[in-house]
Amino acid sequence: PIRPPAIEFGPDAEQIGVNVPVWLWVSNPDPVSASATDRTVTVTATAELASVTWSMGEPDAASVICTGAGIAPSAGVDLWDPPCGYTYRLRSLDERTAGAGTWPVTAQATWAVTWVANTGESGSDSVTVSSAARAAVGEYRTVIVAGT
């Protein structure tokens, strides 16, 4: 079976802020294969993650479409330039989120499926599965203190 995407936010899912890029990725992008046999015909199908379409929950926000699974941030990377990311404009206040205090996030993963039979026939298709999560978005303010 093709698994729903395991949603990940970064660099820290507990500290998402407005005007700060959020990295997006799924942590279960490994290909999936299965075979089935009926009498003398065996068919093997392989699914590979092609793209993920993210809905970030903010009003009027465009979807984010990322090729593949996205990438988790690592040491030394420019956190302001995620290969797959989103920047929230609004805090997830109770009055904006129907009392939830979080934005609803949906990741819709599209898997490219190819199949081949021992009879020489082959084909392709796609399968889409989704997952949902919640993102609490706050606001960070800096204070500059002179002479310390």
Properties at a glance:
mainly beta; 3-stranded antiparallel sheet; 148 residues; 10 strands; 5-stranded antiparallel sheet; 0% helix
Describe this structure in words.
It is built from no helices and ten strands. By secondary structure, the chain is mainly beta. Strand 5 and strand 6 form a beta hairpin. The N and C termini lie far apart (59 Å). 22% of the residues are buried.
Quick structural summary:
Helices cover 0% and strands 49% of the residues. It is mostly beta strands. A hairpin with an 8-residue loop joins β5 and β6.
Described by strand count, sense and barrel closure, the largest sheet is: 5 strands, antiparallel
Radius of gyration: 20 Å
Our estimate of the beta-strand percent is over 45%
What is the H/E order? EEEEEEEEEE
- Total helix count? 0
- The separation of the N and C termini measures 59 Å
Low-confidence runs of at least 5 consecutive residues: none
Mean pLDDT: 95
List the helices and strands and how they pair.
Blueprint: E1 7-10, E2 16-17, E3 21-26, E4 32-38, E5 41-55, E6 64-67, E7 85-87, E8 103-117, E9 122-135, E10 137-138
